[in-house]
Amino acid sequence: MFKSEKGITLVALVITIVILIILATVSISFAVNDGLFTRAQEGADMYVEEAEQEQSTLNLIDSSFANLMGKYGD
Questions:
Q1: Given a cut of 60, is residue 74 above it in pLDDT?
Q2: Does 63 reside within a domain?
């Protein structure tokens, strides 16, 4: 009688690890060479600039509203 095989063989495990290493290498080289990190940094910088501009606009609106309330609030 033959034993039923259960589990994973060492060969299958090694092949899986090799495939994962190849995929990781391709992914890392794509991220570095294609400028993914550079584009992400540019996006973050644009976000900060827009947030500062929005905050200054909100401060201007708030001060204008406070002036109107002071003028007509009494």
A1: no
A2: yes
